[in-house]
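Entry:
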Amino acid sequence: MIDQEQVVVRRPFLNGGGNQEDILRLLDDMEDLAESSTSFFGKAWGLDLEEFHMLINKVRASLPDEVRRASRVANDSDKIVLAAKEEAEMIKEQAIEESNRIMEEARQMASKLVDTSEINRMAKVQAQEMMANAENSAREIKRGSDEYARDVLSAIENHLAKVMGTIQKGREKLDMRISAVQTSEPIIPIGRGIRR
């Protein structure tokens, strides 16, 4: 079946009958016209150009519709190819623009991430510095409080020592006075009346 399709040669515009005969006849007329002119070194002289152009127009008019459609299709195909090239170029430009846009967005996003990371790092360092300063301040306050308490206790201790010294001296004076009174009073024998 494939062999049969390959053997058959499709020439639709030559199968029309009348047009084919007209074209062949007109071509014969053109050949006769060329042979009737004077030939000199392969060039025709004295050719009837008016009749020649008339035959050309008749040939064109006798061409079958298939040939005209084929010509239009050929012209349309050029337009289609041109339109396809323009569309492909437009799609290529759009793809480049889209690619550039995506790359720019990626760069901006990466930059933001870097900035965020840098901000987080700086915030962490600042927080650590604040914690260290707070701990130092707490240690200083505690040390100051201890020193103040120690000074207060020392002052109280000195004051109490002075008071104890004063009490000790008072008690010693009283002891000496009591002893002096006891040694100066006469001893009254028992049974001799009341001492005066």
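Residues 1-16 have pLDDT under 50 and may be disordered.
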